[in-house]
Write a structure and sequence with these properties.
mainly alpha; 257 residues
Length: 257
């Protein structure tokens, strides 16, 4: 019994480690943050996506009772950005600047370290948010809350697969100031996949087909990151999450009739 209690206590610590790393939501006071928990907490990254997507879904559903769908979508997007502190959007913008403005590996990495946003980052994040908004606006409002949850969880799983398949490439002093999960076992990958797929159980079979474009997108991104810099950085993971989330919504918005 004590071993079971210890196991569940550890899993709670790992979940709240993932939650506090990816969001601005507070953890209970009894949770002790430790960088040692960061690598094994990857199993819960998809579950954090379920929570973030759930917040966006609730805000959309409530707002849509009062305002037009387009306004409700914008409020939902704002809610999820506030929840995460624009964590992934920042990574996407930095990646746009790095890969857009850099040539060699070191130049790309140095540009991505710069906290200032450049032209590539500003243009990229603007188009990304616009594309996300218009894709969501083209989806049936009745099914949209469930797709928000699925999109956030699945995209976070897609992003974390890079941890399993690629090498982390930043080993300078600055990278140590921003700890990142850099290892993932097959068991942790499987657990993350199960959490990612749970929201799709609430949807019809055709939405399972959206796994195909998401899988293709993350495979192409992984190949691109490896070709350009030899692996991934934290910014690359944020970019991968944003790209695969938008890909999910884009294909979900296709009119198949």
């Amino acid at each position: 019994m004590s071993q079971l209690k210890t196991y569940f206590s550890l899993q709670l610590h790992l979940f709240f480690t993932a939650l506090t790393f990816f969001t601005r939501l507070p953890a209970p006071k009894w949770v002790n943050y430790s960088e040692d928990y960061l690598n094994p907490s990857v199993r819960y990254f998809s579950l954090v996506g379920v929570l973030v997507g759930g917040i966006g879904a609730i805000v959309f559903w409530l707002a849509n009772l009062l305002w037009p769908t387009a306004v409700a979508i914008l409020l939902s997007m704002i809610a999820t950005i506030l929840t995460t502190g624009a964590f992934h959007e920042d990574g996407f913008a930095d990646s746009c600047d790095g890969f857009g403005g850099g040539w060699g590996k070191m130049q790309v990495l140095n540009i991505m370290k710069d906290s200032r946003i450049g032209a590539y980052g500003a243009v990229g994040i603007g188009f990304m948010l616009a594309l996300k908004f218009f894709a969501l606006n083209a989806i049936d409002p009745q099914i949209l809350p469930w797709l928000l949850i699925a999109g956030h969880s699945l995209s976070r799983f897609a992003s974390t697969t890079l941890i399993y398949t690629c090498q982390y490439v930043r080993e300078d002093a600055l990278s140590k100031a921003k700890p990142l999960a850099r290892k993932m076992s097959a068991g942790e990958l499987l657990a993350a996949a199960l959490f990612a797929l749970m929201p799709l159980l609430l949807l019809t079979w055709r939405y399972w087909l959206l796994l195909i474009p998401v899988a293709i997108a993350i495979w192409l991104l992984g190949r691109y990151f490896v070709r350009r810099i030899g692996g991934y950085t934290g910014d690359c993971l944020g970019a991968a999450q944003q790209v695969t989330e938008v890909i999910f919504y884009l294909f979900a918005s296709i009119n198949w009739q």
